[in-house]
């Protein structure tokens, strides 16, 4: 049966006040002059349940939040959503009795945790499915959401005279058709899952086929030989490599035997080289020691020279008393000088012992003795250096002699074998490189075989999935009779509403589930007038609504919101009568089904027929939809559909 969905009330909250609009009866007409907020009220219903609503400046600037009291399936909910703040992408679920917050849900389906769409679809017991889509050549999926389903519920004024349930929206087009199939049971989770699988297999098959073609083109350009020819070539190369490795091993063995014969001579050479190295180190040490001895002798000679100069100066200058400065010739006898201090430098006079000739002579004798000893040690170190130099020459000569003997002994035996070993090694390396190249080519052939097998596997899986899909679709084919019945009901609905006298037949296209008028598509009606198109659109939605009520296995929502059912209608008698027929149909549905359905209608004028079945919400410039906001009057009208068109530009 129809999934039960009903709005009980909508509370609009501003900074200063709030106002509640109730939808108690089976049908409610929201009427008022253009710009008083009829469409905005309906848009706020959509906003409250998570939809993307087009709101006028009056709503965006003054309304803080809205609360919608709804019945979804068997659940009574209170949904609160703010406007124009950082929490507008969340909806608070409140307790209908206490207004206490139960939880806060995100709008977007598929987000972490449960979303508002998940909650509402689950409450409606409506299947939550993902449909296959295609984007930039890749198989992708899209989750069907409550907002998608709400498009069948809410017929907006901006599209009611030109499109059927958003069928002109390329992005929404596949969702619209799949939602129709789900509502009528023409598809189910199995069919959709198989469709997603087929889309994925199609993408995989395309990728694997392209990969196989690329590998085949590479093999054709790289080497014309087949895989069998490469296999035979690889076996031949491996046999040649085994023979080359055997020859190389024989040469190395022979070289090792010849090398054993001169092992003694090689040992002598190593010892001679070691002895030469040690002799060089001894020579370096002797040179460094000799340089140190020479430095000591030079220092003693400098000390003796300094002592001689000092003694001479004392001897020559001590008898004199200076009365003038020997440097600048100024007189010194007038300057105050402490006793026992020098008149020239003002330092204390030295003790007599410091200038004693005997002490100076004793110091001179000690330095001369040190000089004699240092020269004797220097001469001994020079002899050691001479011996070290001779030792180095002898060790170098011995090493050179042994090396020449080894070279002469191995020249005729080892060198030719080294050349043969080098040639054999190069041959083996060339064969290994050839084997690697052939092996790599064979790996590409193996990859091509693997890809080809993967292609066959994908084709087999696709064939099985296609067969399963056809089988399941065949099982659901009996339900196509529902579309036939719907088409018959639609024809009767159009006949009752009589949009135009020239309409002879009205059916539902079984391929896309859109109206056909006189076997022509809905788009062909645009030239016949917006009022006629609007009437046919209303007939299509009313047919779906009534069909869902009367068929227990059809999941059409029991709520229908229509904005401007008389849009684009003229003021002549025929147009007025067509409007009355539409409202008579509203009345008949409300009387027949009562609380099982809900109609919410926005219109510029009140219902053209008097009836107790219609609840009323009347708006005017003195009492616009946004509470507490003064409307500037008919000269300052801002309509919701105008906002949509402005943003679309």
Automatic annotation (TrEMBL):
Residues 628-649 are annotated as: Disordered. The keyword Coiled coil applies. The keyword Transit peptide does not apply. SUPFAM superfamilies: P-loop containing nucleoside triphosphate hydrolases (SSF52540). Transmembrane segments: none annotated. Residues 227-293 form a coiled coil. Keywords: Coiled coil. Residues 638-649 have a biased composition (Basic and acidic residues). InterPro entries: P-loop_NTPase. This is Rad50/SbcC-type AAA domain-containing protein.
């Amino acid at each position: 049966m129809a999934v039960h969905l009903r709005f009980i009330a909508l509370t609009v909250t501003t900074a200063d006040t709030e106002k509640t609009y109730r939808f108690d009866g089976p049908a409610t007409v929201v009427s008022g002059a253009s710009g008083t907020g009829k469409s905005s009220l309906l848009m706020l219903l959509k906003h409250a349940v998570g939809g993307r609503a087009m709101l006028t400046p009056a709503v965006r600037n003054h309304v803080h939040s809205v609360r919608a009291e709804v019945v979804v399936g068997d659940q009574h909910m209170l949904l609160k959503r703010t406007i124009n703040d950082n929490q507008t992408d969340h909806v608070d679920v409140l307790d209908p009795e206490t207004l206490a917050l139960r939880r806060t849900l995100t709008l977007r389906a598929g987000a972490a945790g449960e979303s508002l769409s998940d909650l509402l679809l689950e409450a409606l017991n409506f299947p939550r499915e993902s449909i296959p889509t295609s984007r930039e050549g890749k198989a992708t999926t899209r989750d069907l959401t409550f907002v998608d389903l709400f498009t069948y519920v809410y017929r907006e004024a901006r599209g009611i005279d030109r499109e059927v349930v958003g069928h002109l929206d390329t992005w929404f087009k596949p969702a619209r058709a799949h939602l129709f199939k789900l509502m009528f049971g023409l598809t189910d989770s199995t069919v959709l899952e198989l469709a997603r699988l087929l889309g994925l297999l199609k993408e995989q098959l395309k990728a694997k086929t392209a990969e196989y073609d690329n590998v085949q083109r590479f093999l054709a350009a790289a080497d014309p030989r087949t895989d069998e020819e490469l296999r035979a070539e690889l076996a031949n190369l491996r046999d040649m490599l085994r023979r080359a490795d055997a020859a190389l091993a024989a040469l190395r063995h022979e070289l090792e035997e010849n090398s054993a014969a001169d092992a003694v001579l090689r040992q002598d050479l190593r010892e001679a080289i070691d002895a030469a190295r040690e002799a060089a180190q001894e020579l370096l040490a002797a040179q460094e020691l000799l340089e140190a001895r020479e430095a000591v002798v030079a220092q003693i000679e400098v000390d003796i020279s300094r002592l001689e100069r000092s003694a001479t100066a004392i001897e020559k200058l001590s008898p004199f008393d200076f009365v003038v400065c020997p440097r600048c010739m100024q007189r010194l006898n007038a300057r105050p000088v402490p006793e026992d201090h020098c008149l020239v430098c003002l330092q204390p006079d030295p003790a007599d012992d410091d200038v004693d000739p005997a002490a100076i002579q004793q110091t001179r004798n000690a330095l001369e003795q040190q000089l004699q000893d240092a020269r004797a040690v220097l001469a001994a170190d020079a002899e050691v250096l001479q011996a070290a130099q001779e030792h180095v020459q002898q060790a170098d000569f011995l090493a050179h002699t042994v090396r020449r003997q080894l070279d002469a002994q191995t020249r005729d035996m080892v060198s030719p074998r080294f050349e043969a070993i080098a040639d054999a090694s190069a041959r083996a390396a060339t064969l290994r490189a050839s084997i690697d190249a052939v092996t790599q080519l064979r790996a590409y052939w193996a990859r091509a075989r693997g890809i080809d097998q993967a292609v066959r596997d994908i084709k087999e899986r696709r064939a099985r999935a296609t067969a399963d899909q056809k089988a399941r679709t065949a099982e659901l084919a009996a339900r196509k009779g529902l579309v036939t019945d719907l088409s018959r009901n639609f024809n009767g609905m159009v006949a009752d509403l009589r949009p135009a006298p020239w309409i002879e037949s009205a059916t539902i296209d079984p391929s896309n589930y859109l109206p056909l008028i006189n076997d022509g598509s809905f788009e062909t009606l645009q030239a016949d007038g917006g009022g006629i198109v609007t009437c046919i659109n209303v007939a299509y939605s009313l047919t779906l609504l009534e069909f869902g009520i009367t068929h227990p296995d059809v999941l059409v929502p029991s709520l229908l919101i229509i904005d401007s059912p008389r849009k684009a209608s003229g003021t002549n008698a025929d147009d007025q009568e067509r409007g009355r027929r539409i409202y008579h149909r509203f009345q008949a549905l409300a009387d027949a089904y009562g609380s099982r359905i809900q109609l919410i209608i926005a219109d510029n004028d009140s219902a053209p027929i008097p009836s107790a079945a219609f609840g009323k919400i009347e708006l005017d410039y003195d009492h616009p939809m946004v509470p507490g906001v003064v409307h500037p009057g008919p000269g300052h009208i801002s309509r919701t559909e105008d906002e949509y068109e402005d943003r679309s530009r």
